[in-house]
TrEMBL record:
Protein name as catalogued: Branched-chain amino acid ABC transporter permease
Keywords associated with the record: Amino-acid transport, Cell membrane, Membrane, Transmembrane, Transmembrane helix, Transport
Main location: membrane
InterPro entries assigned: ABC_transp_permease, BCAA_transport_permease
Family listed: Belongs to the binding-protein-dependent transport system permease family. LivHM subfamily.
One GO BP annotation of this record: amino acid transport
Membrane topology: Multi-pass membrane protein
A GO cellular component annotation in the UniProt record: plasma membrane
């Protein structure tokens, strides 16, 4: 089967959309693991929760509070849903996760896995597993853009650009600013950092809140593209964990680069050999772990 360059580029762009979501979700996982040493299995549920907050704000909130005409559109959801999920995440960290920091990683994994199941079960009582379309795509982002080799949906282009902007802004803050230096130092030696007057427990709480806010941001951006379902995070979290492992656990740049790259590889695989598209990421994970167990960007211990 011969493929034209235009067809390959078009499929790569479509794969890049998925890659942008892989990147921002794996980035949130990398931030939480790299700075707090927590394997956050609830990350997919936070992604779903962000999309659900956007849907509820547009379709149900006004009815619930007695003002049917009140709706939170896409731009308001993009600003408020990550904040709502961040607050929820910080409550979880303060009330549950902080008790597990001195214990084995397995306890944090089991706790966050349980939180994910509770959230999914709660929303399954009210929403269909088949998915609910998000009805508030901004008119500004409708239509398509001529890229020369294809007409690419304007909203998908926005999703890629917005995700990349958030990813690289996060990398810059953590790797190039004083705040990021304090976060990294607090991870390595919290007692010393606290001796300099830094409130390390508050810093840990805010960091966890920021990590889950990244997942919620991805959920809101994904809402107009994919159907909103209580299981949408569960369908994605295994792939995102594979991306994090390939990039290197805790590596910020590894999460970004690997997420984008694997999205495009997955997209191209659908053209070359479609049955392998669902397994190519896991095959690459096995190969990377055999050659470099710490991941492509991870540090050997």
């Amino acid at each position: 089967m011969s493929l034209s360059i235009d067809a390959i580029l078009a499929q790569a762009m479509l794969g890049l959309t998925n890659g942008a979501f892989y990147a921002i979700l794996s980035l949130g996982l990398a931030v939480i693991f790299g700075l707090l040493n927590i394997i956050n299995f609830a990350h997919g549920a936070m992604y779903m929760l962000g999309a659900m907050v956007a849907l509820i704000g547009y379709s149900y909130l006004g009815t619930w509070i007695g003002f049917p005409e009140l709706q939170t559109g896409f731009w308001w959801a993009l600003a408020l849903a990550p904040l709502v999920v961040a607050i929820f995440g910080m409550i979880i960290e303060r009330t549950m996760l902080k008790r597990l920091y001195q214990l084995d990683h397995l306890y944090g994994l089991l706790l966050t896995f349980g939180i994910a199941l509770v959230l999914q079960g709660y929303f399954l009582n009210y929403f269909s597993t088949g998915g609910t379309p998000y009805p508030a795509t901004p008119s500004l982002l409708k239509g398509a853009v001529d890229l020369g080799f294809m007409y690419f949906p304007t909203y998908r282009l926005f999703a890629i650009i917005a995700s990349l902007a958030v990813c690289f802004a996060t990398w810059y803050v953590i790797e190039r600013t004083k705040i990021g230096a304090l976060l990294r130092a607090g991870t390595e030696n919290p007692g010393l950092v606290q001796a300099f007057g830094v409130n390390v427990p508050l810093m840990v709480t805010l960091t966890y809140g920021f990590g889950v806010a990244l997942a919620a941001f991805a959920g809101v951006v994904a809402a107009p593209i994919y159907s909103i379902s209580p299981l949408m995070g569960a369908d994605l979290i295994i792939i995102v964990f594979a991306v994090v492992v390939i990039g290197g656990m805790g590596s910020i740049m590894g999460a970004i680069v690997t997420g984008l790259s694997l999205g495009m590889i997955e997209g191209l695989t659908k053209v070359i050999y479609a049955p392998a598209a669902n397994t190519v990421i896991f095959l690459l994970m096995v190969l990377v772990l055999l050659v470099r167990p710490a991941g492509l960007f991870g540090k050997e211990r």
